[in-house]
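for the writeup, i need someone to sanity check this before i put it in the appendix. the sequnce is what the collaborator sent (i think, or maybe the updated version? ugh). structure was predicted straight from it, no edits. if anything looks off just tell me and ill rerun, i have time this weekend
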Amino acid sequence: MSEPSAAARRRCFLLATALVVHIAIPLAHADRLRLEALVQEGDLLLEEVATLSPSDDQLAEEGRRLVASEQTLREEVQALNQNIIQFNAAMAEQNQAVQTVQSQCPSRTDDQALADACDKRVAQLREQANLLEDDRLQLRARQEELNALVDKQNAWARDYGKRRGTQDSHDRLNQRDSDEWLGRAKQLLASQDFTALSAHAGNPQACGADQMNEVATLSTRLALARVMTCLKALKAGNP
């Protein structure tokens, strides 16, 4: 049987807590039990964060690579489209030149100079046509190559979107639970219980006003870690 996730174990912990809160507890121990419950739940939240953070970082890096790849591919497609426009213009010019030769060069003539000039021009147009055909084949091959790359890019983007969405769902759940936990932890920090616990623990620096005042300016994950450092110091000083 696989080990339950931190989220599952934390839900079980909360359920167990809910089942025993009705039991009468001496006031002298209630603050320590409240502290212990917060620390245990906070540890599980931090464990979730430790699991989520590497995936967040990896997906963020992949997202940057995806955007860069899309930009490069977009530029290559734009360059191909420009080459196609230039090719079409060259083809139009070639067709116009062919029509001009056809109108200026009769199929039969006794004018040898005219015949020689027309033959030379036809040979030039035939050579140009061969070059344009080579260009057409190269453009077609490049177009097929880019179409395959676009399909691959789109498949990557769809897969990334699904994984990013799943990760974001886990992140939102962790942040919601962390915010709720921080709300309860801040209630303890603002209570007389905190004052007594802190005094008994020797007023640990981790719980100093400068440390706790910054909590409101931190992200949820950093605030969680900051408050947990304080609570663990209180727990260590209140065995």
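Residues 144 and 150 are 10 Å apart (CA to CA). The two ends are 34 Å apart (CA to CA).
thx in advance!!
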